[in-house]
Amino acid sequence: MSTFPVTRLRRLRRTSGLRGLVRETRLDLDDFVLPLFVGPEPQANPDLPGMARHSVDTLDAEAGELVRMGVKAVILFGIPDEKDEEGSGAWDDDGIIQRALRALRDRHPELVLLTDVCLCEYTSHGHCGALDGDEVDNDETLELLARAAVSHAEAGADAVAPSDMMDGRVAAIRTALDDRGFEATPIVAYSAKYASAFYGPFREAAESTPAFGDRRGYQMDPANVREALRECELDVDEGADMLMVKPALPCLDVIRAVREAFDHPLAAYNVSGEYAMIKAAGSKGLLDERQAALESLTAIKRAGADVVISYWTKELASWL
Fold first, then answer.
1. Which active-site residues does the annotation give?
2. Which of 91, 115, 145, 255 could form a disulfide with 151 if both were Cys (CB 3.0 to 4.6 A apart)?
3. Class assignment of domain 25-319?
4. Beta-bridge partners for 116
5. Dist CA 54 CA 89 (whole Å)
6. DSSP readout, 149-210?
7. How far apart are CA 45 and CA 26, in angstroms?
8. How far is the C-alpha of 249 from the C-alpha of 229, rounded, in Å?
């Protein structure tokens, strides 16, 4: 008589059809958001495929292609013509993001338009707020962020996503939006945003590298997870409609912890460095890029993210 266990888990792995039948985590294009960079003129990025900069004029064609492919949502990052100390281009009615929003809203009403609300792309010093000496002035920055968020809503944003990590920014933005009649505009809060080395390619693409110092004084220490839960709790109390963890792959445990602690929709940002590493390894034949990307995105969803912001979104549309 055989003593081999009766349970054979390999039975349901035997064919592609059986594996698909019992798959626990699935990728759905409805859950993905594509970052788009908009500047004064188009600019290729040969070091980071898929992260080319668009102008307002070329953005229309890109958005049309995305809609045809089934991409449902984008998040916009602006690179202005000029920068100043306080980042005034962030709330300029004729600013790069405001013009992009109006163009996309008119031409592609079915596309969900999120905007990154931060000052780092707009300040001459590259930090995420107004400076007091060499430090970012938290409370002065809140008013500037609120002005930017309102200007985005006025231009047609479906949701605003503050990424600055200032204390109290969600409450300040919620109050400003409500006071201007945008009670229905949701806030997607970058609640647990870590000071990460994985943002490097983004900073080059968005021209947002700090001119001095770093952002460790306001972005989170990668060693902390309990602090992330406190940040999320504060954002919930201040009126956030969706929480976010950034970066995604180094923070799968944080995504899981946030998912278990809160019922709010949860986003995770599959950031530029994560994308760039797999792109580079794939180009050298060290791994299969598509398989590695799908495995990475599945891991983010498996950890508990409802929404994934990823530079692979457009490619994912063709893969799925």
1. 193, 246
2. 91
3. alpha beta
4. 161
5. 17
6. HHHHHHHT-SEEEE-S--TTHHHHHHHHHHHTT-TT--BEEEEEEB--GGGHHHHHHHT---
7. 31
8. 18
pTM above 0.90, yes or no: yes
**pLDDT tens, per residue, the chain with 320 residues:** 567 788 899 999 999 999 999 999 999 999 999 999 999 999 988 777 778 899 999 999 999 999 999 999 999 999 999 999 999 999 999 999 999 999 999 999 999 999 999 999 999 998 999 998 989 999 999 999 999 999 999 999 999 999 999 999 999 999 999 999 999 999 999 999 999 999 988 777 766 778 877 889 999 999 999 999 999 999 999 999 999 999 999 999 999 999 999 999 999 999 999 999 999 999 999 999 999 999 999 999 999 999 999 999 999 999 99
Break the chain into its structural domains and give their ranges. 25-319
Listed residue (203, 199, 293, 192) closest to 252, CA to CA? 192
243: DSSP letter? E
Look up residue 55 and give its amino acid.
Answer: S
Per DSSP, 146 falls in state: H
